[in-house]
Every structure is written in C-alpha cells, then in structure tokens.
Amino acid sequence: MQTHAIRLEAAGDPSVMQLVEIDLPDPAPGEVQLRHTAIGVNFIDTYHRSGLYPVKFPSGLGQEAAGVVEKLGEGVTDFKVGDRVAYPNGPLGSYARQRNMPAARLVPIPDGISDEVAAGSLMRGMTAQYLLKQTFEVKPGMTVLIHAAAGGVGQIACQWAQALGATVIGTAGSEAKCRLARPFCDHVIDYTNEHFAERVHLLTGNQGVPVVYDGVGAATFEGSLASLAPRGLLVSFGNASGPVPPFSPNLLASKGSLYLTRPTLGNYASTRAELLAMAADYFAIVASGRVRVTVNQRYPLADAAQAHRDLEARKTTGSTVLIP
Ligand SMILES: NC(=O)c1ccc[n+]([C@@H]2O[C@H](COP(=O)([O-])OP(=O)(O)OC[C@H]3O[C@@H](n4cnc5c(N)ncnc54)[C@H](OP(=O)(O)O)[C@@H]3O)[C@@H](O)[C@H]2O)c1
C-alpha cells in the first residue's frame, strides 16, 4: 500500500524534512502495521535531524507515536487488529501516517489515556520514571533541581517528583514559562535573568541539592555542578542548548566529589519487561491525576518543520504532537 512519511536525505535545518509518498509492505514476522493517530515530537528528533546524533540516510524520523493495529505479521500474539497502542523509543520513522513496527516495542494504551497524551508523553513520562525512580531515587523530604520545568519532560518530572514527596526547584526561560511551571514546583527560577545556582544555595540554607536533572546541557552545566551538595549527582540527560563540552574529571573533585551520569531511555527500557513496567508505572501516575500532561502544540504531519522550529526556538511548553 501507499502512505505518507517524512523522509530525510541529509542532515540539516528543519527544511530537510520532506513529506513524501512511500510504499509500505505488509508487516514482516513479529511486526504489526499501525495507522498512527498522533505522533510525538521530542527534542531528540531535532538531534537526529540536525546531525548531532548521526543517522544513516535516507532516513525516517521520530521515535514515538500512538495508533491502531491494522495488520498482524506472522507470529504476533500479544496484539490484535483494532488495539490502541503506543511506543516511546523508535525505531526511527514515527513521522508517518502508517508504518510497520516490531510488536515487542509496543505497549497497550489503557482506557482513559487519550492517543494524544500517549503519543505526546510516553517517551517523556518513561524518561521521568527512570530519572526519578532508577537513576537517582527521589525520596520524601529531598530538595531536587529540575531544569526546563515548563517543557515536556520538565512538567512531568516536576509533578512526579512532588508526588514522591520532594521539594522541587524548577527553572524556566521566561516570566510566562515560570508562571506556567509554578503550580508543580515549590520554587521557580527564571534562569535567563537570575544566577540559578546562587538561588538554589539560598533556598537550601547553603547546602545545595543532592541531585540535578539537567536536559538543557551546555548552557546549564557549570551552574548545575555549582548547585549540588558535596557528593551530589548531576543527571545530564539532554542537550537542548547544545552538548556539554569535554572536561577533566578533576572538575568533579573540585566541586565536591560529585557524580555525573549521562543516561538514555534506551538503556533503561532495554528489555520488553522493562518497557512494559515503566510504561505501566507512567500511565498509572497519569491515571491517578497526580501528573497532568498538557499537549500544548498540535501540527499537521506536513508541518513537522514548523514543529521543530518552534521547539528549537523555545516557543513550546508541555508536549507537542503531529496529527497524521
Ligand atoms: N536521555 C533521555 O533518555 C531523554 C529522553 C527524553 C528527553 N531527553 C532530553 O530531555 C530534554 C527535554 O526534552 P523535551 O523533548 O521534553 O523538550 P522540552 O523540554 O519541551 O524543550 C526543551 C526546553 O529546553 C529549554 N532550553 C534551554 N536552553 C535552550 C536552547 N538554547 N535551545 C532550546 N531549548 C532550550 C527550553 O525551555 P526554557 O525556555 O524554559 O529554558 C526548551 O523549551 C531534551 O534535552 C531531550 O533531549 C532525554
């Protein structure tokens, strides 16, 4: 059958994303054919598109979507035609109307969770899950620092950290974004006009925080280290402002015997059991109402380039989806 998908012939600015007609074969053994209903737009998609994370061309783009199972490949028993499913982390090619997916990479969408919420937040929600519960276990009474609190991962992580009993210090890049982040942070810092590490020390009685969750990267790296208590952990999980430049491990010594980790969702959801357990944990906290997901931007699939421009220009808040 024929369908439409975004294809990249080379890395570059958003204009390299072209919506083209492609041939979609029947699903191979172990695969299902999906009709997408909503497609997640994540910051990592911009890294694949720009060349920061190299991909092989020609390539599809996007790692996350929700949809309906339309055909089953041989040997697929976990799903049936008509099931609502989602996937959080590839393989590349979610920017498409229909696609074939390995069934082992899919999770069922529970009743009560919309396709838009699943598509716009499963990757971000599962990321918050492992950051707060596995990379560093957030416990009641702790104070944690979470950057880009008005963003996709940020909104979810701040609410979830509060639900775990932590005091949350969030940062955001404008007065309007600070207002948006305020309901799910105990303190919000506009890091475009304030030295956030100094504020963190003021707020913690000069102790610093035991953990910083930093998806901003280059721009916040030094301030994040300076915000930590001795032996604290910097969780550097993204590069929204560019990748952290190389540095000597002695820097960690001079800042207080600090720890640094650079985790990825792929390493935490590497088995089917992990994928299902993390997705179920995430959907459960959304269903409980303690984490509210806001899908604040919707674009037609053909306007994927505009979605990337807005994301990279810091114009978005919460989650973003493409409508196929
Ligand atoms: N490692 C993993 O497993 C994993 C998984 C998912 C996502 N991530 C990472 O988590 C981060 C957040 O992802 P997301 O998709 O939810 O994006 P997002 O937070 O919705 O958007 C990124 C935000 O970063 C902030 N930012 C600061 N400096 C920036 C700059 N120079 N250019 C652009 N943005 C800047 C902006 O918020 P302000 O304007 O408020 O500063 C922007 O809205 C990304 O770094 C992403 O790669 C990592």
UniProtKB/TrEMBL annotation:
<dbReference type="InterPro" id="IPR020843">
    <property type="entry name" value="ER"/>
</dbReference>
<dbReference type="GO" id="GO:0035925">
    <property type="term" value="F:mRNA 3'-UTR AU-rich region binding"/>
</dbReference>
<feature type="domain" description="Enoyl reductase (ER)">
    <location>
        <begin position="12"/>
        <end position="322"/>
    </location>
</feature>
<dbReference type="InterPro" id="IPR011032">
    <property type="entry name" value="GroES-like_sf"/>
</dbReference>
<dbReference type="Pfam" id="PF00107">
    <property type="entry name" value="ADH_zinc_N"/>
</dbReference>
<dbReference type="GO" id="GO:0005829">
    <property type="term" value="C:cytosol"/>
</dbReference>
<protein>
    <submittedName>
        <fullName>Quinone oxidoreductase 1</fullName>
        <ecNumber>1.6.5.5</ecNumber>
    </submittedName>
</protein>
<dbReference type="Pfam" id="PF08240">
    <property type="entry name" value="ADH_N"/>
</dbReference>
<dbReference type="GO" id="GO:0003960">
    <property type="term" value="F:quinone reductase (NADPH) activity"/>
</dbReference>
<dbReference type="GO" id="GO:0070402">
    <property type="term" value="F:NADPH binding"/>
</dbReference>
<dbReference type="InterPro" id="IPR047618">
    <property type="entry name" value="QOR-like"/>
</dbReference>
<dbReference type="InterPro" id="IPR013149">
    <property type="entry name" value="ADH-like_C"/>
</dbReference>
<dbReference type="InterPro" id="IPR036291">
    <property type="entry name" value="NAD(P)-bd_dom_sf"/>
</dbReference>
<dbReference type="InterPro" id="IPR013154">
    <property type="entry name" value="ADH-like_N"/>
</dbReference>
<keyword id="KW-0521">NADP</keyword>
<keyword id="KW-0560">Oxidoreductase</keyword>
